[in-house]
Amino acid sequence: MASAPAQQPNLTVEQTRVVLSEVIQAFSVPENAVRMEEARESACNDMGKMLQLVLPVATLIQQEVIKAYGFNNEGEGVLKFARLVKMYETQDPEIAAMSAKLKSLLLPPLSTPPIGGAIPAS
């Protein structure tokens, strides 16, 4: 008999804050910081390479934390957790701030073109 698919954990706002905080802290663990830095250096700020190299490392780091809270230990668990965080972002400013911090850890800073000289005047 096949087992039923795992249910998404039902976390409260408070529990989500705790898990999100632990996920952010996991990126500060020296071993994980080195893994992320190596992936970023290999990607050379190329968005395509970021998706290929940095995102998988970031996903693994998140999986290591969220599996303790009932999320599956595959990419699907990270997606479900991200959806849960997104849902609570509009309800809780602390979750919104932590979510923004997590995104800043995952994505490279966007460079903006210089003001002026980029577009020739007509």
From TrEMBL:
The keyword Cytoplasm applies. Keywords: Cytoplasm. The lineage of its organism: Eukaryota, Metazoa, Chordata, Craniata, Vertebrata. InterPro entries: P_C10. Its main location: cytoplasm. The keyword tRNA-binding does not apply. It is found in: Cytoplasm. GO terms for cellular component: cytoplasm. Belongs to the UPF0456 family. This is Protein C10. One of its GO terms (biological process) is post-embryonic development.
